[in-house]
Amino acid sequence: MHRAVYSDHRELRATINRSTHAALPQETPLSGQLDLAFARRGAATHLARSFQSGGLRVRLPRRESEAEAPCAVLINTAGGVVGGDRLAQSLAWGAGTRATATTQAAEKVYRVLAGRAPAQIATRIDVAEGAHAEWLPQETILFDRCDLHRETRVLLAENVTFLGVEALILGRTAMGEELRRARLRDCLRIWRAGRLVYADALRLEGDIAALMDRAAIGHGARAMAVVVHAGPDAARLLEPLREALSVARGTHAASQWNGLLAARLVAPDGQVLRHDIALALSALRDGRPLPRVWRC
Questions:
Q1: Residue 286 sits in which domain range?
Q2: Could you give the CA distance from residue 273 to residue 170 in angstroms, rounded to a whole number?
Q3: What is the rounded distance in angstroms from the CA atom of residue 249 to the CA atom of residue 91?
Q4: Chain centroid offset of residue 278 CA
């Protein structure tokens, strides 16, 4: 409870500092670790391992039946990260399991104080033979003067289905926020049977708003996402995905190769991006509704 109250103070103090340029006192960096594993018991999937420390927690909402795939909801009790914070998340799907992992809310990355290291978020996902894994975190919202290094590593067995999304909001446009001085390093890599099959790296530094205004970079966009599907039905899903995105409000593109399907979305703001992500995920999840926390 103390940590959740403290996160409110962080955002308030960051707002005060933007208007007064006053120096803020140093805060203790947050360290959090989460290690989850799903295993099959009979015909159902259950949470077999759940190690939680620091500011990271997990909850499993009640299922309607044992046959329903579990949905693990990851929670950062601090409400966000600042410079020097380190979050490490490890999730494993055992053989034949079917489960979804998401986050309780959008992650917020606040300004870094002078002399602090970047905020770091590292995620490792392991998916064993025959498993069906969904990694569907909600958006990451960047605030001005933030410094984030995020890395996601996905290790797939040969015969699995994986669906993942990584989304970024570059300042809350409804609040008039712009990233005029910030740094982002974001990396997503996927291996299948030990072979690298997908690599996506992004680096933005300095006046990110000005960079995103350039036609060759963002053409005015303030939000972006990548949706990746790996599995034997990737080729079949390409046209349904493109059809679903035909009514997208932002800019999008989708392609398929070698058992992988990837869609990139850019949008003028987070609301449009979320609308378009929902379209893409609906097509790739056979019309199943998004996790409840996405719809709150």
A1: 2-19+32-295
A2: 11
A3: 33
A4: 14
Structural domain contains residue 97: yes
pLDDT in tens, 45-65: 999 999 999 999 999 998 777
Beta-carbon contacts of 112 under 8 Å, excluding residues fewer than 6 positions away, are 82, 83, 84, 118, 119, 145, 146, 147
CB crowding 253-272: b at 16 or more within 10 Å, else e = ebebeebbbbbebbbbbbeb
Strand-pair partners of 132? 98, 161
Rounded to two decimals, the pTM is 0.88
Backbone angles phi, psi at 197, to 5 degrees: -120, -10
Ramachandran angles phi, psi of 150, nearest 5°: -120, 135
Tokens of 296: 């709150």
Please report whether residue 27 resides in a domain: no
- DSSP calls for 215-267: TTTTTT--EEEEEEEESTTHHHHHHHHHHHGGG-SSEEEEEEETTEEEEEEEE
Residue 74 belongs to some domain of the structure: yes
